[in-house]
Amino acid sequence: MCAVTIQVGDLYAQPRGSNLTADAPAGQATWIWYPGDYAVWLANKMQNRRTERGAFLPVFWKMDSHYVLVEFHKDINLSHPDTIQIAVEGRYNVKIDGKAITGNLKTIQLPKGQHRLSLKVYNQAAVPAIYVKGNQVISDGSWQVTFEDKEWIDASGKASDKSGTTYEHAGYWNFNTAANKPSAFQLQTVPASPVKRTVLPSGSVLLDFGKETFGFIRLKEVSGKGVVNIYYGESKAEALSRDSCETLDRIEFTTPVNNFDTTTASTKAFRYVQIDAPKAVKIGQVDMLYEYAPVTSRGAFSCSDSLINKIWQVAAYTLHLNTREFFIDGIKRDRWIWSGDANQSFLMNYYLYFDQPTVKRTLYALRGKDPVTSHINTIMDYSFYWFMAVKDYYEYSGDAELVKTIYPKMQTLMRYCLSRTDKDGFMEGLSGDWVFIDWADHLTKKGALSFEQLLFCQSLETMAICANVCGDKAGAKKYQNLASQLKAKLFSVFWDSERHAFIHRIFKGKKDEAVFRYTNMFALLLGYLSPVQRKEVITHVLLNNQVQAIHTPYMRFYELAALCVADSQKVVTREIKSYWGGMLQKGATSFWEEYDPAAKGDAQYAMYGRPFGKSLCHAWGASPIYLLGKYYLGVQPTSPGYKTYEVKPALGGLKWIKGSVPFAKGDIQIYCDQKQIKVKTTGQTEKGTLIFHSRTQPRTNLGTIKQTSEQAYTLELHTGQQYVVNYEAI
Amino acid sequence: MCAVTIQVGDLYAQPRGSNLTADAPAGQATWIWYPGDYAVWLANKMQNRRTERGAFLPVFWKMDSHYVLVEFHKDINLSHPDTIQIAVEGRYNVKIDGKAITGNLKTIQLPKGQHRLSLKVYNQAAVPAIYVKGNQVISDGSWQVTFEDKEWIDASGKASDKSGTTYEHAGYWNFNTAANKPSAFQLQTVPASPVKRTVLPSGSVLLDFGKETFGFIRLKEVSGKGVVNIYYGESKAEALSRDSCETLDRIEFTTPVNNFDTTTASTKAFRYVQIDAPKAVKIGQVDMLYEYAPVTSRGAFSCSDSLINKIWQVAAYTLHLNTREFFIDGIKRDRWIWSGDANQSFLMNYYLYFDQPTVKRTLYALRGKDPVTSHINTIMDYSFYWFMAVKDYYEYSGDAELVKTIYPKMQTLMRYCLSRTDKDGFMEGLSGDWVFIDWADHLTKKGALSFEQLLFCQSLETMAICANVCGDKAGAKKYQNLASQLKAKLFSVFWDSERHAFIHRIFKGKKDEAVFRYTNMFALLLGYLSPVQRKEVITHVLLNNQVQAIHTPYMRFYELAALCVADSQKVVTREIKSYWGGMLQKGATSFWEEYDPAAKGDAQYAMYGRPFGKSLCHAWGASPIYLLGKYYLGVQPTSPGYKTYEVKPALGGLKWIKGSVPFAKGDIQIYCDQKQIKVKTTGQTEKGTLIFHSRTQPRTNLGTIKQTSEQAYTLELHTGQQYVVNYEAI
């Protein structure tokens, strides 16, 4: 296996359209629907596109549906009469002040004064949605919606009391014209050509698109009659393996065609494609339609090390391929939304796109609808990651509206969790629960696992935070109490002072004193440890080679983050270069689902008992995006939505680093070397804090540097200013 | 208002096709789906056809959806290989022993031996459904289905434990060929012509179809250009009232047509139709497509009184018009499924069609899906009627399968009810609850109403019965205890020994001692009263004119049933003749939603504050079907599914009665006059009991008559025998 040469910049050269994933700007009419319903519907559509060797392969958990009948209304006060245009997806009525209009329901005259404009829409196949545009009245997120308006009248014609009805603010995205119907949404495409064409001994043709990619194959100028088989490969070996490649297409020309162009019906992931046509079929040309989400890369990172830069670029490309209608796990398979995987994509997103709509859609899609009949994706830890992801989203974005809308669904999922606790208040895997943690040897999953309790505890803390955002004080108190009790129990039962670490589990009433990295690194990351325990965990677990190593990029994400929190960026730099650099050495053009440096040849592509089961483009492989943004550039919010934030640059052994970190209302640009730190924030924040160490007394061009302890300094940052700090790195 | 002459037999002359509503016969391949889902989907379709003066008028409660992704499987043991044909509604895969098949998924070879055949289907717009037909393997109700199969595999390819998954038996109806797709279902139609055509002074044309009817209007041989307005009327006055008729159609010929035939897009209810065409539009002919459910009338009744016979015929016609995809309330409006209304249709159905599939569909559609967010139809009493209807269905049909499938949904609805009780365990109308009881003056609905508690108690008893059917002994005990406690409280709080009756309610801690018929007649009907209380209620409430009279056929249903239970059939005969006969006198060709004998002229059509708001064809108007079958022919099951039953004929002042009562597996034919009773049962039962009184010693041609008390006798009945008893009626 020879390493390919990667052209940095070329690899990540992405088509860029208008930023389709941004929300509609305020004051603009946009299509609206019941909040979360569009995500549920679109997720069904996307997740039902998976195939395995031609066979349809859907998810194995409950798929929910949108509400098929929805009432929308808005109370308006018009200074003048308004003429409004209405577009609707579904069968509908329009009421003004409760009275139905008949005749033309597409253009309506609204009289001046105080009125209630209501529409009620039925749509079984797609999401009931409306678009209203007048001079004074527009459809937007301020509309009220409900799935049960309870508007009965009695025999005399008197209207009911409606106080039992819960109204929500409408959901929306960026369908900002009447013609741009939500149900017609498709990702964008652009043609791309193979970089190499090889005729195989069998006569079939192998195309190499130069790098991992995704889209439709186009057969052009086809003549003749017969069956064309297309075998896809993320690796060359996979595309060559007709019997074992994971995905394939079969295009049958039952009647002769002449100079005919055709495109595959569904998208596939591949770098290599084997086209096997019988002699009776001539194909003029083959290329592809690359399909992509036109998200904007606002984050950036570069440094003195070209391998790290290459890794960042490939990671960004990997994340981009896996950022589609939603954040998915991998583009070859499963192409599904997995909570544990999405949780990492969310975090990477905050350092690359800061695309809030994709996070929101993914959160809604994962959670689905009530009733809760199993854990998210059937996996216990994945329910917890979902809670934690809501907390992260709120911290990064400050979007209290989402929290308020989704809080009832948080409550019902937490109720489900709490209904499955044992006498100690712990959650064990019950019948039908998948306990995942990681793909790893020796990692037993029966009983009460310390890892699951830790995530459960964090989920309860998330509930308390979100309850406060929603003004639910009783809920906040209840959840905080439950979290505190569980935390106390977690330490008393699982913390082992002899092992200086959390042990793995209790099973059948007995402690299993095995120590794994998982619980310990998460406890560090989540700030659950005392200063003493923190040191113990770093020494006895994180930096201890006796503790079983982690092989998946999935858990390396958290492991390396924990090392950064332990100020071990130098170790992390080495690990990134060796692990992700190792994949590049093996020819990777995107990062993998799992990587074992020791695996050789085609064996490295095997997983799930199948020779090419492994995904070679997996979102969780892109973690350097997050690590380099959060722990090298050192930027993170310290209050929701970057109202306040910190910048704590760390070179991690690199000579210099520079980059940009986006947030909802601006960007933070950082440069750092051994002698100088430069920071400039643009956009809307209250203040930031630069945190750094210096051997010598640092100097700044602006503001006043404060010393917080020996060699430790801070500088308050304000937006629009370019701060230049001269210092001497330790 | 002159009385029309009703041709008995003519009025109820119904087109009869194959009995489409019967279930698929055993051993025959049929389309299958997740149980209940087809009803939910079809109900959405049907209930979203209501319009009011052209405006779409959907329901105001939550509409649910089918599961969009469903797994079907069947474990089979084949003596020989089998070739099976597969038809599917939706995108699907096929697995044999867990391994997906590729290629042709319409014809599949199954090897001999023990195998699991699985299909997984996705369909957002319609219900995922499959049809499988081989020599040995067919799709039927024995297949297992689930909406979450939880079939994950770990990294090594090992399959998960699946024990957390709940499988149900598949639902089905009578789509018994591959081509007969469930999503394409439509009721049958047959052309019908108006009996009278009148040109109005305005130039528009008034058509009279001779009786209440339902369907599409067809305009034939239309030429010209312009707008044709169609105004529908259940009464002549309504069709003539362009401004106030409840339903209308507007057909616009935007470009000139020539000799063109067109049909209205949706069905309407009417007897009269006003066709208003401009001069520029010539219409050759107008007729209708009568739309109907091809159910078979198996029950029959006739007697010595021709008015009663006419009433029975019109009632049967009224019920037939309201028996559609589901049992609906009325054909003009609402055309919805209301639990209180359906409960009566179910009971009438047991004495007319004994059509189980329509009952099951209606029960599923009413209940919808979890979570429960409001009472059924938003009405508290309607939740209770639903429970009671399940009990009735089980008693009449003996269908334990339905009870087992629907029991989890009974539990969740009951949990919702129990979560809304007050400190006394009573259910008051909370915010968003509609408390209905009846359309009646002075009937206050705030506070804890004795009527609601009585129905709640019966619902709890139903839960206990169904828990036992499902083998849920703990549940049975719990619900029985709750029922007993509530019953005790009901009597201690609401029974007033001075008034010899249940009083109306407690409001703000105080008793409201008003006495209404409702609680008292239901207590009698449900067997809640001691012999003494029973007599008190009959004397002081039922037969007491001081107690406010009931004006709706809806509550007359129960009132007259209670009078029958009180052996007052003679009173009931008089009431039927005066009340239903009164409607006939007013020109009714089907029975009304509400009837006030005192109302005159067009005022009698007003309701809900609208001049023609009243429905003149309302299912609940058809109660004579039930009363005459159950309390005159006197037939009812005494153990589930007519395993045992009683026949207790009552002449109610008539010279003779005869008729037939259907049950799932047979029919019971009865003739009775003052001197002779004849009974013949065909079909499958264990035994029946004829119960009668005689002044003299009765004689029988078969079996042995037993005397049970003075002048009271019984005779055991066996199937296939014609019993002739000579006696002398008291």
TrEMBL record, chains A, B:
The organism's place on the tree of life at top rank: Bacteria
Organism: Arachidicoccus ginsenosidivorans
Start and end residues of each Alpha-L-rhamnosidase six-hairpin glycosidase domain: 298-630
Signal sequence coordinates: none
Protein name: Bacterial alpha-L-rhamnosidase
UniProt xrefs under Gene3D superfamilies: 1.50.10.10, Galactose-binding domain-like, Maltose phosphorylase, domain 3
PANTHER family: ALPHA-L-RHAMNOSIDASE SIX-HAIRPIN GLYCOSIDASE DOMAIN-CONTAINING PROTEIN, C, PUTATIVE (AFU_ORTHOLOGUE AFUA_3G02880)-RELATED
Residue ranges of domain Alpha-L-rhamnosidase C-terminal in the record: 634-670
Chain coiled-coil ranges: none
GO BP terms: carbohydrate metabolic process
Domain Alpha-rhamnosidase-like N-terminal: 70-275
Pfam families recorded: Bac_rhamnosid-like_N, Bac_rhamnosid6H, Bac_rhamnosid_C
InterPro entries listed in its UniProt record: 6-hairpin_glycosidase_sf (IPR008928), 6hp_glycosidase-like_sf (IPR012341), Bac_rhamnosid6H (IPR035396), Bac_rhamnosid_C (IPR035398), Rhamnosid-like_N_bacteroidetes (IPR048932)
SUPFAM superfamilies named in the record: Six-hairpin glycosidases (SSF48208)
